[in-house]
Amino acid sequence: xxxxxxxxxxxVIPFLHAETIVCSxxxxxxxCTQLCQGIDSIHVHTIVPKSVDxxxxxxxxxxxxxxxxxxxxxTNGLNLEGWITxxxxxxxYKGKVIIASExxxxxxxxxxxxxxxxxxxxxxxxxxxxxxxxxKEAFPSHTSTFEKNAISLKAxxxxxxxxxxxxxxxxxxxxxxxxxxxxxxxxFAQCYNIAVLSPQGVSTSDDPSAADxxxxxxxxxxxxxxxxxxxxxxxxxxxxxxxNETGKRVSGVLYADTLxxxxxxxxxxxxxxxxxxxxxxx
Length: 282
Prior knowledge:
The protein is of the alpha/beta class. It is built from ten helices and ten strands.
């Protein structure tokens, strides 16, 4: 009997020491999970599922319960999660809230910051630094693992940056124009010298005016553009209407605010880049 009790205690102990990180959406969850690789005692969760738009997310009561049990909360910032402050305040969570985009120089569309910094490998590495520092402070006993994982993770994004740059270097500048559902790829465009058009602003909640649509359609007709993409979490009606009006074909689907299927962030960004390059070469 004592033996059975001892075995049960050994089974329970790991769960008593479990440490919980809650991220606002799937891309941060993926980065954090890769940084915590090899640490079984840390559990990483996301509030917004991969299948839901983080711009438009409507928090559920269960989200407050998840936050209340967190040891660390990580958000993107730059107005991506306009709903999260009230959610955290109402959850009773009293710990640190880390902003992954802290000290990153964001582009602005009018008065609104562009939150989509994860489309630039260079800016992702700054996010990795911010998250790693937060993890080391929150869980100092795992510092060496976090540092080792951060070095490896940043190396993968440096390699991605080189590979994507080589991909677009082969495409004439006149063909490096793309159209997407909302203005989510401008950091990507800055990296690889691409022009990006979109009917919506930096948030999927921004509806274009009639004048904006008219101007955009005029641009599309005057430019050599073959790369027209829907986004997997956005309403396709606006972009399909533009394609029909201009006689252009929709090239496919990109992943702007989430991960593709079971891919990590690196492979999702590579998928987007290769799909865009293929369409530009069509």
